[in-house]
Amino acid sequence: MISLYDAPTAALSCDVGADVLLVGDSMGNVILGYDSTLPVTMEDITRHTAAVVRGARGSSRPSVPIVADLPFGGYTGVELATRNAAALMRAGAHGVKLEGAGPSVLEAVRALVEMGVPVVGHLGFTPQSALRFESVVQGKTGEAAARLLDGALALEAAGCCAVVLEVVPAEVARRVTEALSISTVGIGAGPGCDAQVLVWHDLVGLTAGPSLRFVKRYADAHTLLKEATGDFVSEVHAGAFPKPEHGWEMDEAELRGWMPRDGSSKGGEHQDG
Ligand code: KIV
Fold this sequence. Notes:
The chain has one domain: TIM Barrel (Alpha-Beta Barrel), CATH 3.20.20. Helices cover 40% and strands 12% of the residues. By secondary structure, the protein is an alpha/beta fold. The protein binds 3-methyl-2-oxobutanoic acid (KIV).
């Protein structure tokens, strides 16, 4: 699973064999410039879901499933959850993801499943409730691990088709995976999950600054793209771009017949008549 937000990255991820695309609310941190996922709105997720859907459809594997995140505050009751999930499904998503396993979340999951919407749960470090956590790694004590397992089982019983496990000890994720019949998708949860997810910008090294421990950078896109952008700016400043091959010539005869007005200059006065 790859979390991404736009058409070209969706297309290339489908082309290389990604099994599921996630339109994650991590877009808040990654591309919208917020310092959390909390400000991300339904409008944001819907627009980016539609873009990802277009990208996937134009790829060599147009039927790769796309899951869209329900944003913070977007599933606080059954009515809101079903309305928002319907909007994301209309935008082309094949399922939605929501965080936590509290009573109202479980109620929302049941209503969505009854409505025919595949639902992915999300436990462990859940960014929408990050302010509540004292540390990033979740499920470190026996009691916390038991709570995590109970939550995962409750999500399964409510009808979820998969659960993301974020930043939990590898052994806990492995045991939760063994206890569930639905798939687990790990991020910072070790190799014992059924699947793995990373944010595309993280895995290609486009995110600036040091990456989190669970991220593996498969490229240094930030350096590459910064250098390319710098080269463009420098060449324009130096007059080295564009060159004749980047533009078009006017026909000689047309050029000779065309009489620009004398004295016309950028921002200068025009002589009419
Ligand atoms: O928002 C997101 O991208 C996610 C994944 C990191 C699981 O929730």
